[in-house]
Amino acid sequence: MHNLLSGFSAVCALAALMSQGQPPAGSTPPPPRPKRPGVSTPGVKIPITKLKPDAVFSVPGVPDWLVIDEHVWVSNSPKHTVHQLDPKTNTVLATITVGKNPCSGLAAGFGSLWVPNCGDKTLSRVSLKDGKVEATLAFGVPDSEGGIAAGAGSIWMMTDKNGTLARIDPATNKVVAEIDVAPGSYTVAFGDDAVWVTSTEKNLLTRVNARTNVVDETIAVGPKPRFLAVGEGSVWTINQGDGSISRVDIKTNKVLATIEAGIPGNGGEIAVGDGSVWVTSFEFPITRIDVATNKVVQQFHGDGGDAIRFGLGSVWLSNLRAANVWRLDPKRIVATLPE
Fold first, then answer.
1. What is the mean pLDDT of residues 127-152?
2. DSSP tag of 269
3. Are 261 and 240 in contact (CB under 8 A)?
4. What pLDDT band is residue 307 in, cutting at 50, 70 and 90?
5. Cross-strand pairs, 108
6. Is residue 106's pLDDT more than 50?
7. Which of 20, 60, 86, 230 has its CA 20 to 30 A from that of 11?
8. How far is 246 from 227, CA to CA, in rounded Å?
9. What is the residue-averaged pLDDT of the chain?
């Protein structure tokens, strides 16, 4: 993901001050964005223009976070909405107003879509059946680049920068447990009866036992891990510090591989499905890793990308700057060859 709106607002404010001859008080220039070289393996890089989507969903605004149940849902921060995509007809089925500036992931579970909102620090609960907002809950959202997960009869999300993981009972919409994990943790995923949390600040992956609400393990991974996915017997983290992906074995809690992808910096997303790990970032909309070899076997470069999910037999890619969502047959991706 990428906080494009806040960055744009900051640029506008700076330009206004400079036009008046007034440098912003106490301002410091933002750090330069790290270069994203991608991988150096011959025959792996492919122009994204060679890849043809099976369907394109127009989502005016800033389509961002994705989650999949029987439909595909995408958030749209400046519009304060989520959109329901119909995989049967490849059309946008509904647009639903939620809280202010939906951010930090989406989760589907217990008959509802769960939407964190950065603008008003709330969590919207939307019926998957009729699209109506069932509840608006007051919750801290510590970072726009985070995540939320459903599993073990609960919703899980971080509520502050200090490392407070909240467990929410969907029967009551109340927090029933708070678990302390490493500070600077923002993104969560669920798998193998565990909640997995990355600490971007401490370079850690934390495993929380969903039965006992106890931290079972803390695992050192690559620098600045953020987004993560569970699948193929492993947890996979994008490490924004150096653009690598760490693969952690669920059975042993050991790092099995560190996979160089060459995509450092903010944003990105990761998903697992059909024998591959799918990674997105600006400049490299799709990077495909073969889970059998732990190697990057395809890396599509060019415009596009922001969030990625695998489900309903397809890869789903939100293209934030193009204001659309792509649906792609994974077999079509695999069959697309470099020039």
1. 97
2. E
3. no
4. very high
5. 113
6. yes
7. 60
8. 11
9. 93
pLDDT at residue 5 greater than cutoff 60: no
Strands (E), 170-268: 174-180, 185-191, 194-199, 204-209, 214-220, 225-231, 234-239, 244-249, 255-260
- CA nearest to 14, candidates 4, 3, 25, 1: 25
List the domains of the chain with CATH numbers. Answer: 43-335 (2.130.10.10)
pTM: 0.92
Q: What is the mean pLDDT of residues 212-225?
A: 99
Where do we find the tokens 């989507």? 53
Structural Rg of the chain based on CA atoms: 19
| Contact assessment for residue 65 and residue 74, using Cβ atoms and an 8 Å cutoff | yes
Are the C-beta atoms of 188 and 200 separated by less than 8 Å? no
DSSP string, 129-171: TT--EEEEEE-----SS--EEEETTEEEEE-STT-EEEEEETT
* Paired tokens of 239: 């490490």
- Structure token digits, residue 300: 């599509």
Q: Is the dihedral of CA 9, 11, 12, 14 positive or negative?
A: positive
Read off the pLDDT of residues 140-151 as tens digits, 9 standing for 90 and up. 999 999 999 999
Q: In what order do the strands lie in the sheet with 225-231?
A: 225-231, 234-239, 244-249, 255-260
